[in-house]
Amino acid sequence: MKTVADVMTPAPIVAEVPGTRNDVINIMVRNKLTGLPVVRSTDGKLMGIVSRKDIFKKFEEEQLSLIMKRNCITIDTLAPLAVAAKIFAEKRIHRLPVVEDNKLVGIITPTDILKEIRQMKTTITAEEVINTTCVTAYEEDPLSYAISAMRISDVPALCILDRKGELSGILTDRDLFSDQVSDEEAAAKLGISDPKLVGMRNVLPLFYTVATNFTDNDTPISRFMIPKPTTVFRKTTLNEVARLMLTHDFGQLPVRGNKDELLGMIYDVDVLQAITGVLE
């Protein structure tokens, strides 16, 4: 069985304390990251971890030490992948700092394990592992509703329905971020100092909308959603789900039933839960 050391990213990019929210934003944007470990500048000791969600939840804070998660879960280099998969699935987190002799040596994410699952043969299907309530919205609802729904439900994506109740699109946090941060003035409000970085995806979902009171916007969700999203069938096997997620860089996929109806949403950590203890 492969270990964490076999698939982790060694010597990961880090943020440092003392530091600020804007310092982290610039690092994330420049390196196309959604989260990273935080170390102490004086000796490199691991102090915590920070993600785009952490910044969004505490957007009023400027000091990194007040935003990051302290006492974060870590894992050893020799731990089997199944152990990492179990942690991701149970805690529903998306990054694990890898430590050796109390020193940060790498980081592992669900994507690293999905690459292994893609090569597996399994009979476990998408419908068997759906583990999160699927939150929906109407395509003509205002964007302010979508933002509130995501925050209250603590989900990174909404399934968007048309007036017939059929799936017409998907709205993810990164779609909102990408659409809104399209000019230098908007980027400056996020602390993005390099004009070349404006418009990059995958970084700080919804933060701009909060920081600029964009939640008052009544533009319909259909303006921002991805129409006709990629979906999987209820009987799609998990290795195929993993392949689709990796191919399209998706963290979630809507699941359809026998009559093409929406059944729910499967997330990357759900895929890991299904194969915990099965990885070879």
Features:
12 helices, single chain, 33% helix, CBS-domain, 280 residues, 4-stranded mixed β-sheet, 2 domains, alpha/beta
Describe, in plain words, how this protein is organized in 3D.
This protein is α/β, with parallel strands linked by helices. The protein has 2 domains: 4-109, CBS-domain (Roll); 126-275, Roll (CBS-domain). The protein is 33% helix and 22% strand. The strands form 4 sheets. The chain has a 4-stranded mixed beta sheet with strand order 1-8-7-6. Strands 2-3-4-5 form a 4-stranded mixed beta sheet. A 4-stranded mixed beta sheet has the order 9-10-11-12. Helix 5 (81-91) packs across helix 12 (268-275) and helix 6 (110-117) packs across helix 12 (268-275). The longest helix is centred in the N-terminal third of the chain and has 11 residues, at 21-31.
